[in-house]
Write a structure and sequence with these properties.
The chain is α/β, with parallel strands linked by helices. The chain is 35% helix and 17% strand. The longest helix has 22 residues. The two termini are 16 Å apart.
């Protein structure tokens, strides 16, 4: 009997996740059948899958066909961007989460990243695997995201990271990862976190604490500012202290930390960095997703 797996939505990470998952299952002599719906694979990916896993992977035109006899349903990271639709960036069609809830067939396991709570509340018989709650996945994902952000910084700034001065707002897993990588590359790193109890950890790591809430704001000559806090914490008084060539990088989900209108009014360059590491390291990120699924199984 084959393990029935269905994929829906997502970006290039879904392909590399599936490829790694099938390779490991094959090594363990576990047969699998895969259907995918509203998932766009890279060029020649379908041919690669057909060659390496013949008669295993099939595209289907409807959700019902994807869920038929499905044991494991693997959604994207993030599962939804707007809380209403499944994240399907490369498809003109849209799938609402309500359609998933109301589907006649339900999977035994539903996996994805940042799965909305109301989806879990309305599918009580389904076991959920949220990648963004798995410690091992979060560790890998934050490191990959930090690497990806370096590419954005290099592309959008005129100077070198070495000898630069930067501010990182938010000292969570991702904030700590990007601060570390910038410091290793020779940047002078300042960090702000809303939780003041994190200041000893920030200082111990070798960074300087900077409080963006003080008024008047502390003067500091930053080359770029990185926000990782998903809340509008960066206010106009602080933004007015920045040089006009200081570049702002938004990595947090909506509403983010910067006010776009204020940044535009002050002629500050604001760079949104959505989808890292899906855009910068899809293979490594996809493998991390597959490993979480295999561990869960």
């Amino acid at each position: 009997m084959s393990l029935q797996i269905s994929l829906a939505g997502g970006d290039e990470r879904q392909y590399y996740m599936l490829l790694h998952l099938l390779e490991v299952l094959k090594e363990k002599d576990i047969k699998a059948q895969v259907t995918y719906y509203l998932t766009s694979f890279p060029v020649n990916a379908s041919q690669t899958l057909s060659t390496r896993f013949p008669d295993t992977v099939t595209s289907v035109p409807t959700l019902n066909q994807a869920l038929e006899q499905c044991r494991i349903f693997i959604g994207p990271v993030p599962f939804s961007r707007d809380g209403i639709h499944l994240f399907t960036p490369h498809s003109e069609n849209a799938l609402t989460l309500t359609e998933l809830i109301n589907a006649a067939n339900k999977p035994d396991i539903l996996a994805g990243g940042n799965i909305p709570k109301y989806l879990q509340q309305n599918m009580p018989k389904v076991s959920f695997l949220d990648f963004m709650k798995e410690e091992s996945f979060l560790d890998v994902n934050s490191q990959l995201s930090a690497e990806g952000l370096l590419a954005y910084i290099i592309h959008h700034t005129k100077g070198s990271i070495r000898n630069s001065s930067c501010l990182v707002t938010g000292y969570g897993r991702f904030g700590a990862a990007i601060a570390n990588k910038l410091s290793c590359l020779g940047s002078r790193v300042f960090v702000y976190d809303r939780k003041q109890e994190k200041n000893p950890d920030i200082l111990k790591a070798g960074y300087q604490c900077y409080d963006i809430r003080t008024y008047p704001p502390m003067k500091q000559d930053f080359d770029f500012v990185i926000n990782t806090i998903p809340a509008p914490v960066i206010k106009a008084p602080f933004l007015r202290t920045l040089r006009k060539d200081c570049v702002l990088f938004e990595t947090a989900s909506a509403p983010g930390g910067f006010d776009s209108d204020i940044c535009q009014g002050l002629a500050l360059k604001l760079v949104h960095c959505p989808g890292i590491p899906g855009k910068t390291a899809p293979k490594a990120a996809g493998i991390a997703m597959a490993e979480s699924i295999l561990t869960h199984l």
